[in-house]
Amino acid sequence: MSAAAERIDDVFAALADPHRRRVVEVLRAGPRPAGELAKAVGLAPPAMSRHLRTLRRSGVVEESHPDFDARVRVYALKAGAMDELKAWLEETERMWAAQLLAFKAHLETPPAEKDEA
User: How far apart are CA 117 and CA 115, in angstroms?
Assistant: First the structure.
């Protein structure tokens, strides 16, 4: 398996959980401290920590610490984290579109023309 395929698998696995998808939705508005994310998603801090660890390992989010307090962890969506996934989805969509067009053409071909082919 290629490294790109492994990264796509990691992103799919991270986004398989509805809480983690909700974190991504919340982070679309901008970076947030872990405590705010836990409240927004409705999870206890230890559970939120586990989900954030998974999102960080998959490369979907990144963590930073503000200068005023190194204990505070701020999370943000990582730029380009889903580029490989988007490319894979676009490629898959093109393949299916071509397959469906060919199937449609086959169905619309009159029976007499099919027998001649």
Answer: 6
pLDDT in tens, the chain (117 residues): 788 788 888 888 899 999 999 999 999 999 999 999 999 999 999 999 999 999 999 999 999 987 777 788 999 999 888 788 888 788 888 888 888 888 888 888 887 766 665
Task: Give me the residue label for tokens 């007499």.
Answer: 112
Q: Are residues 96 and 60 in the same domain?
A: no
What's the helix, strand, coil split of the chain in %, to 5?
65, 10, 25
Looking at the structure, do residues 73 and 39 belong to the same domain, yes or no? yes
Whether residues 69 and 105 fall in one domain: no
Distance CA 9, CA 39 (A): 28
Q: Residue 93: give the domain boundaries.
A: 82-117
Which amino acid, residue 14?
A
Tally of structural domains, the chain: 2
